[in-house]
Specification:
CATH superfamily of the largest domain: P-loop containing nucleotide triphosphate hydrolases
Helix content: 25-40%
CATH class of the largest domain: Alpha Beta
Distance between the termini: 43 Å
CATH topology of the largest domain: Rossmann fold
Structural class: alpha/beta
Radius of gyration: 20 Å
Largest sheet: 5 strands, parallel
Length: 281
């Protein structure tokens, strides 16, 4: 049985870095594979006597703009698994990366930003096919490596992989979130001088943020809602679900809520990954 991972996404979003992580982990990695050969790779990897059990294909989005479902079908047809990872980033982040490397963008346009937006529009169908979307805008190379290693460590997804993320609205919405919840109605520890330098992981910050008549019911109902929805998403075949909780800066309230909801879901038997996007900003 062979597991396949297709790594694709916006040009400049980190495809080569992600492929390198899988190669370091012992995966058989093919970069820039022509889409016409995807079926042949699947055939060889799954042939009787093949010793290849993990294959990663790093493919530029331009090669898969047309009919992504048809192109992925040979990889889905076998007894193994297929995960499609789409790496995304904001236009500003991609412009900055391209200007830093002085490389030309593969999609022609009057300006670099125009080229990126044109590629983004063309990639919409492919993005919709992805099992997991990772926004690399604010990720360092180390952070991206950690996210890909996390993907590898989960192995073949037997169930839904749930990710809870805190963020600050002043830094922008997470592009890879499936569901976003606003927790700015909770008391803001930022306005308490001794709490300002701390984070939502601190018990005193948590107690302050949750000192609101709606805090308890909110946490109860969010947990109940997720316990209801997770099996439904899993029945629909969804492999990854990303839920983001936002406050103003991403240091206090959203962090406290994510930690609390994650603890409740883990107690109920769910596997949960936690990240705090803006806690260090």
């Amino acid at each position: 049985m062979t597991d396949f991972v297709v790594i694709t996404g916006m040009s400049g979003a980190g495809r080569s870095t992600a492929a390198g992580v899988l190669e370091d982990r012992g995966w058989f990695v093919i970069d820039n594979l022509p889409t016409s050969l995807m079926g042949k790779v699947a055939e060889l990897a799954t042939a009787p006597g093949s010793t290849i059990s993990q294959v990663a294909l790093a493919i530029g989005p331009g090669a898969m703009f047309e009919e992504p479902s048809r192109l992925l079908e040979p990889l889905r047809a076998g007894e193994g698994s297929l995960r499609v990872v789409f790496l995304d980033a904001t236009t500003d982040a991609l412009v900055q990366r391209y200007e830093g490397t002085k490389r030309r963008h593969p999609i022609g346009g009057d300006t670099l930003a125009t080229s990126i937006e044109r590629e983004r529009t063309m990639a919409d169908g492919l993005r919709a096919q992805a099992d997991l979307v990772i926004d690399t805008s604010d990720l360092s190379v180390h952070d991206l490596r950690a996210r890909i290693e996390e993907l590898v460590e989960t192995g073949t997804p037997d169930g839904l992989n749930l990710s809870l993320t805190s963020f600050g609205y002043k830094h922008g919405l997470p592009r890879d979130a499936d569901i976003v919840l606003d927790v700015r109605f909770l008391p803001n520890p930022h306005w308490v001088e001794e709490l300002r330098p701390r984070t939502g992981r601190d018990p005193e910050v948590r107690d302050h943020a949750f000192d609101h008549p709606s805090a308890g019911p909110f946490l109860d109902q969010v947990t109940s809602l997720l316990e209801l929805l997770l099996p439904e998403y899993e029945r629909e075949g969804k492999a990854y679900l990303s839920i983001a909780f936002g406050c103003t800066g991403g240091h206090h309230r959203s962090v406290a809520v994510v930690e609390e909801v994650a603890a409740r879901l883990r107690d109920a038997g769910s596997a949960v990954t936690v990240s705090h996007r803006d806690i260090a900003t």
